[in-house]
Amino acid sequence: VLSYNSLELQLSKGFVILITTLTSCLISLTVLGNTFVILAFIVDKRLRNQSNFFLLNLSIADFILGTFAIPLYVPYLLTGKWLLGKFLCKLWLIVDYTMCTASAFNVALISWDRFLSVTQAVLYRSQQNRPCRTVIKMAAVWILSFLLYGPAIIFWDFVPSTEEIPENICVAGFYYTWYYLLTASAFDFVLPLISISFFNLSIYCNIKKRSRRKMQNSISLPPQKSRKEAKLCTIATNITLQSPQIDIQKKSFRRRINISCNQCFGIKSSSHNNKRSDRENNQVSDLSRDKKVAKSLSVLVCIFAICWAPYSFLMSIRAACHGYCIHIYWYDITFWLLWTNSAINPIIYPLCHKGFQKAFLNIVKYVSQHMLHNRIV
């Protein structure tokens, strides 16, 4: 018979103060950062494109974690007992598991969107005016996230089992079912990690290929088109001069024709060079933008792996050995590390985006002016 008594922690007063301080900081950062992202969408219409809507979806999931899931866990961690009843326990578990999974799926969706914008730019831009697809993708994230854990949390109590969870303990029924946890981890951690790693590697290879091509094209080549036009001009001049019907001096006529041709083709050559220069500048701008995308995605892969890997790894091991080989302290540390990802996400994505930076500054200015006005009044 399994025992859940190990879940009740005996904490010293100093440790309680430390945990309370750290968790309060984490909650504040999570709520504040994701609130700024959501407000930015409300105040700045220019941010409302497909790519940024996926950021909004991520921020909503992280915001709910910061306002509901994390605060309810703090007293449970400090006392070692769940005192809010069975219904709220189920609701908390569903929200927590669903939001964490949605956060991981949104990260994968954002990476996929960035991948398409870099490797299939023309097709990507043509689909920007199709909001239905964006809404479907966002809804799919929430539905799949709920289906992965929600039904199991609700109906696992009806599965015949020799273990009954005490009233003062709030854990999912599959808490020690290693094969279910291992399968779920494959979907909410392993697959997203593989996906974002693949997208990041593909973007890196694409940028490297384009950079190599840019280096090759930077070598100055003779303007073949201008040469052909010059030959045509000379031929036309010679043919005209050989015509016996024109009774004028050949030298003077040749001089006028040459001036005319040079002026004409000089304009054409200048126009051609300007177009070519604009095209090259656009390519350099796109390449620079895509390099920034690649850097942000590489940071994303590292942080996602650091925050998720320990929890997924220890959770499966703990379930396999029924909690006897992994101390509950280590499980709690990985749990909080997983939640830390929700506080970091607003820094990785929106704060690295110039549009969001401007929107955040406008929000801060408005709030500061409003507070100053209230003080004066």
Spell out the key features of this protein.
single chain; 377 residues; globular
Concise synopsis of the structure shown:
The protein has 377 residues and is an all-alpha fold.
Write down the Rg. Answer: 32 Å
The CATH first-level class comes to Mainly Alpha
The chain-level structural class is: mainly alpha
In CATH, the homologous superfamily goes by the name: Rhodopsin 7-helix transmembrane proteins
Mean pLDDT: 78
CATH-derived topology: Rhopdopsin 7-helix transmembrane proteins
Number of helices: 10
Please give the oligomerization state of what you see: single chain
Count of all domains: 1
**What percent strand?**
under 5%
What's the total count of β strands? Answer: 0
**pLDDT < 50 stretches:** 224-269
Shape: globular
Cα separation of the termini: 67 Å
How many strands, which pairing sense, and closed or not: the largest β-sheet? none
Question: What CATH architecture do you see?
Answer: Up-down Bundle
Following the backbone from N to C, one meets helices and strands in this order, namely HHHHHHHHHH
Helical fraction equals over 70%
